[in-house]
Each structure stands twice: as C-alpha cells, then as structure tokens.
User: Fold Holliday junction branch migration complex subunit RuvA from Marinagarivorans cellulosilyticus.
Amino acid sequence: MIGRLKGEVLEKQPPMILLDVMGVGYEVLAPMSTFYNLPETGVAVLHTHLSISENAHQLFGFSSQQERSLFRQLIKVSGVGPKMGLAVLSSMEPNEVVAAILNDNVTALTKIPGVGKKTAERLVIEMRDRVKDWQLPAGAAGDNNEAVAANGDILAEAESAMIALGYKPAEATKAIARVLKTNEVTRSEELIRLALRSMLPGA
Assistant:
C-alpha cells in the first residue's frame, strides 16, 4: 500500500498530478481542495489512497491526513465511489462538506456532480456519526479574489477538469462563463475552484 509520496511536481492537469519520486513518475488524482494549494513546480508531499478495481488501479493524493481520512469515510457510503469522493472534495472544502453533513444540508450536497437527493441523504445519515468530532473553524475561508488575466489554454483545462469531475460540457461552459464575468484569472486551478463554488446554493 502506498500511503505517502514526496517528490517534484512535473505536471499539473486537473485533476491529475504527475509527481517525480526518485525518478519514478506517479500519476495521482487529487481533489481541487488539494490541487489548488500545490506549487506549480518544486517538492510536494501527498498523503495517498490506492484504489484497486477490476478495470483500474488509481492513486489519489491529499494535502493532509485529515482530508484523506474524510475521503476514505466518503467512499464507504453506499453508492459513493472514488470518483464521486473526488468530486465531493473538489466541489466543496472539507470543512464545508462536514458542515453540510452536520447541518443536514442535503440541498448543498445535491449540487455536487453525480450526487442526487438519495445519495445526499445517505451521505448525511451515514457520515453524521463519522464526522461528529471534526473540529470546524470559527469562520469559513473566503474566496480568492485575486484579479488576473485568463487565456484559452486555461479555459480548456478548466472545462476538461470539470467534465472529468462529472459535469456535463454545457454545465461546465456555463459555470466558467459565469465566473469570468466578474473575475479575471491566470490559473486553471483558480478558475475551476470559482466555477465549482458558483454552482453551490447561495452562490
């Protein structure tokens, strides 16, 4: 079992990270909650989870053990696999996921791609006891309002990543366009994060 990787970031194409560990390149899938905080280049440390199925061996990476633990609890829920777990942590910050569960906020959870009402209700019911000891911060983290310029490559990367996370192409295009009306961005990670947040209730 691979539990932790420390290496140089060679490539970032949401949601995939290519990490060079002593000459071996590991392709790691990471939620945007992790992806957004990684350096463009340089050394990164990821706490990993190896998922083995009949069709694929996939390695998932997280910036903290707590985030990985939440992912592992999510994929234990009936009907929630690694892909959906990745979508949950890409659409909402870990603290937001826990808050939605503890507050029975089914509506917020159904905004996540692939999560219908029944799945959202299962998440609340099955996860409530698992996250009851989670320490939520007194205040929620704010959005990144840094104003920068976007280009075609960033738009393409952002749309591709959102489709990989489960959104339909039309939904991804619409969300990205909505964000760009009020924000200027130069990083695809930032654009993806803002587009995903724009699809949450109250956004």
Observations:
- The first strand starts at residue 4 and ends at 13.
